[in-house]
Amino acid sequence: MNTPAEAPKILGLCASLRAGRWAEGAEQLAEQIRGLGCEDDLRAFLKTESLAHLENFVHAGRSEGKPFDEIYANLKREVGNKGLSNSEVGLSAALWAAKELGCRIDLVSLVDHFPPAGGVRRLETLIEKIEEADAIILATPVYFGDRSSLSASLIELFRGDERLAEAVRGKVYTGVAVGAKRNGGQETALIYQIVDMLNAGMLAVGNDSETTSQYGGTVHAGDVGSAWKDDYGLNTSMGTGRRIARVAHQLRKAGDASFIDTLRVGFWVLQDKDGYCVSQIERLVNQTPGGVAASVFDASDADVTRCIACDICPTEVDVDSKYRCIIKRKTDYFKTHHEGFVGLDAVVPVALTLRDRTGVESMYQQFMERTRYLRRGDYVFTDLLTAPLVFEEVGANDSLPLRMLTSTLRHHTVMSRPMIGHLHEGRLLNEDELADSWRAFVEQGKRLATGRLINAAEDADGVRYNPVGYVLSAEKDKEAETLERRRRMTADRAERARQEAAVRLTFSAATP
Ligand SMILES: Cc1cc2nc3c(=O)[nH]c(=O)nc-3n(C[C@H](O)[C@H](O)[C@H](O)COP(=O)(O)O)c2cc1C
């Protein structure tokens, strides 16, 4: 495929300590991925290169039983232009998928910039590569349920180097993690990277709705040269590439139009005491330049029935406006508020967390589990900007802000930096900082909403929930009636997006 120069550029960064590619070899890898045709070609390439990597180790002394430090030294004498480590395999799959969706791709091996004994080299080149990119995929091996030290050094630089900090702000991030164990910490490594990238000012996405809509690519491979065998992991990596490509396109398209409406933000107040969160939301909303259309869903002490974990969720495929949870109690919060959840531009889960829980009302977990029908109802919140807003008393040490982030991301949203208000003795310590974060959130929300409306209006296929892990649901999904309803649902979404785009956006003169 010939990718136009104005297409978004996705930069793959590889944090593998036993990379097969570096220097020109990394550039060659990007060129090789660009030249790959169909998925079968990709898989064949990954297998050949994985086996070549194993061969590198054999030649470097494994066949003679040499100690690993000698093998390692011999490998470093190579030029780094053949073979792929396990992380490189996952990254290549993600980049290939992004390329297939019309993105330009590039690749950098972090061994080129962070030498074994520490320090940084060729920083200027690294910064330029990042500046040129619209989005970044960071692939890391899992070390102790976390990232490798190469990934850690990069993240430190995002915080420590002013130019890099500026370069990454507002760009999209996603990750791929490769571990030797099935559950060796791929997800924890991905989540920690997400948190750090958000705090560096990036927007984060996971993998796509065709795979699992979770936190990125999760590859299960330990031995040198084995990642090509993990079909499931490669699928999640490709899903990661598609997801970041879609959002990068969305943000590029946002440049063609201006958002002339107020942003529709849904605040989900899920844990509160004496209306504190609600009053803080009011304060933030009132000081938003141009205003926002806020819908405050105060569910902290509402009648939120627990999910019954049914095997049909949602009860049927239909348009988004129809309530489709099996729980039909008249006073149930979702039954009575469903329509308000549709048609938003951004979603902000909100909570107050205190050291002393007396008087704190929480519906957090019930609420989250009940949003399942909205997720499985073909991702009602797809591509919406989201970030937790948490007022946290110093010393409360609650896991809630992190849980809000990971649960909300599974709604196929785009995450931005959590907005955390620090409380001490009843006083909000960082009021100005919080107001700045909120204003930045609104600006990002407008940018994303602009691209989303253009994307959704153009994309007749829409986004569908793929019931990975649910055999019963998958069978039901094949029924002709279901498929027809799904077609109606996606057509309805596209039509709404077209109508909204017509009145909420103005297009620049250059746009046809
Ligand atoms: C220091 C170290 C720690 C590791 N910790 C984990 C771990 O916590 N979980 C896991 O699944 N694999 C762990 N592994 C295995 C690697 O993640 C795995 O071999 C991976 O395929 C390496 O990717 P690479 O080929 O790109 O280097 C560890 C390996 C090393 C060297």
How does this structure look, described?
It is a single chain. 44% of the residues lie in helices and 16% in strands. The chain is of the alpha/beta class. Strand 8 (263-272), helix 10 and strand 9 (292-298) form a beta-alpha-beta unit. Helix 4 crosses helix 9. It binds flavin mononucleotide (FMN). Flavin mononucleotide binds at residues 16-18, 85-87, 141-145, 178-181, 184-185, 221-222.
What's the short version?
The chain is an alpha/beta fold.
Average pLDDT metric: 94
CATH structural architecture of the largest domain: 3-Layer(aba) Sandwich
Which outline best applies? globular
In the predicted model, the low-confidence regions spanning at least 5 consecutive residues are none
| Cofactors, ions and other ligands in the entry | flavin mononucleotide
CATH fold title of the largest domain: Rossmann fold
Beta-strand fraction estimate: 15-25%
Rg (C-alpha, Å): 23 Å
Number of extended strands: 17
Distance between the termini: 23 Å
Total tally of structural domains: 2
* Alpha plus pi helix count: 17
- Helix/strand/pairing category: alpha/beta
Largest sheet geometry: 9 strands, mixed
* Helix amount: 40-55%
- CATH class placement of the largest domain: Alpha Beta
Topology, pairings included?
Layout: E1 9-14, H1 24-34, H2 39-62, H3 68-76, H4 86-100, E2 104-109, H5 123-132, E3 135-141, H6 149-160, H7 162-168, E4 172-179, H8 186-199, E5 203-204, E6 217-220, H9 231-254, E7 257-259, E8 263-272, H10 276-286, E9 292-298, H11 333-337, E10 346-353, E11 361-362, H12 364-370, H13 372-376, E12 385-386, E13 389-393, H14 400-409, E14 414-415, E15 419-424, E16 427-428, H15 431-458, H16 471-477, H17 480-504, E17 505-507
Parallel strand pairs: 1-2, 1-3, 3-4, 4-5, 4-6, 8-9, 8-10, 10-12, 10-13, 12-14, 13-15
Antiparallel strand pairs: 7-17, 8-11, 15-16
Flavin mononucleotide binds at residues 16-18, 85-87, 141-145, 178-181, 184-185, 221-222.
